[in-house]
Design brief:
Layout lengths: L9 H52 L6 H5 L4 H10 L13 E6 L5 E10 L7 E10 L1
Antiparallel strand pairs: 1-2, 2-3
């Protein structure tokens, strides 16, 4: 009868350890890729929100500053157009993550300081917001 060889079965253990190391590395890599995609998507949403706010401020610059508060108050025609455009962002509905417009007195009698805030919410994430402000005058 032969005596058992002391290294018998070592290859199987080495292979299992190598498989474990490769599996952990692959899982870590996939998590990193997922995080990068999520971060990229959030950056795209922020860019879209800022573009919507900038377009709204651009429209406001062509309007009478004295009428801005009425037009961009919630339910006004300007605000309704802003809300319709903001709905292309995730999580924006008639009841949730609605955009807001603040119209305050400006540095002169004929000007207004305006702040446009656009909100969104990615699935499974906290609500986000992007704001832009400007002084609108004739």
């Amino acid at each position: 009868m032969r005596a058992p060889h002391p290294s018998r079965g070592t290859f199987l253990i080495e292979a299992l350890i190598a498989l474990l190391v490769v599996s952990i590395s692959t899982a870590t890599l996939m998590k990193s890729v997922g995080d990068a995609l999520r971060s990229s998507r959030e950056a795209l949403y922020r860019a879209d929100a800022l573009a919507i706010a900038a377009a709204t401020l651009g429209r406001m610059a062509t309007e009478d500053p004295g009428q801005l508060a009425a037009r961009y108050d919630a339910g006004g025609t300007g605000w309704t157009a802003l809300a319709a455009t903001a709905r292309r962002l995730p999580g924006v509905t008639d009841l949730a993550n609605r955009p807001s417009v603040s119209v305050e007195p400006g540095p002169s009698q004929a000007s207004r300081r305006v702040i446009v805030t656009v909100r969104w919410q990615s699935p499974g994430a906290a609500p986000r917001a992007a704001s832009m402000s400007s002084v609108v005058a004739r």
